[in-house]
Design goal:
By secondary structure, the protein is mainly alpha-helical. Helix content is about 75%, strand content about 0%.
């Protein structure tokens, strides 16, 4: 851990033991404000993600989630094909796609 971070944590712990800060932190308004401040990064990230998805849809682009779903579907279909080949007695390389010599 960097020395700056250690110093910051130590100073924060020192402040938290001050009776004035303890009394201040027990105020319901302060606690609500702290909770709101702590939830801001998540809300900002969610908002940005929603805006990116809306822009992608407007430009007819696939979103990351859609690509992930598509990959999952393709993988499942490949597994299903492999299972069908095993059930039919082995892989013959595609059957009707073979060219006769």
């Amino acid at each position: 851990m960097s020395s700056f971070k250690k110093t910051l944590i130590q100073q924060g712990m020192k402040m938290m033991s001050d009776p004035r800060v303890i009394k201040w932190m027990q105020d319901e308004r302060v606690m609500k404000a702290m909770m709101a401040a702590m939830s801001m990064p998540g809300k900002a990230q969610s908002f940005a993600k929603d805006q990116i998805e809306a822009a992608a849809k407007a430009m007819a682009l696939a979103t990351e989630a859609e690509v992930k779903d598509l990959r999952r579907t393709v993988r499942k279909l490949e597994d299903d094909i492999a299972q069908l080949r095993v059930e039919q007695g082995g892989s013959n390389g595609g059957g009707s796609r073979r060219k006769s010599a």
